Amino acid sequence: MDEFERLEQIVAEAKGDYMKWKGGNKAAGTRVRKSMQDIKAQAQVIREKVLEARDGSETGTEKKE
Where are the domains of the chain? Predict the structure, then answer.
């Protein structure tokens, strides 16, 4: 699965809990907060991939100086 598709999947999975939280379910709020952390982490993965591509490094182990 592509990194961006994974991000979309996490957001889609979080939507149900978000709606439950909006309805007053406090336990769903905890799950929403966890999902937001997962979204943040996945966004960072994508950000790193974009930077690697920009710098011409496909593996991410090389650094331009």
Answer: 3-54
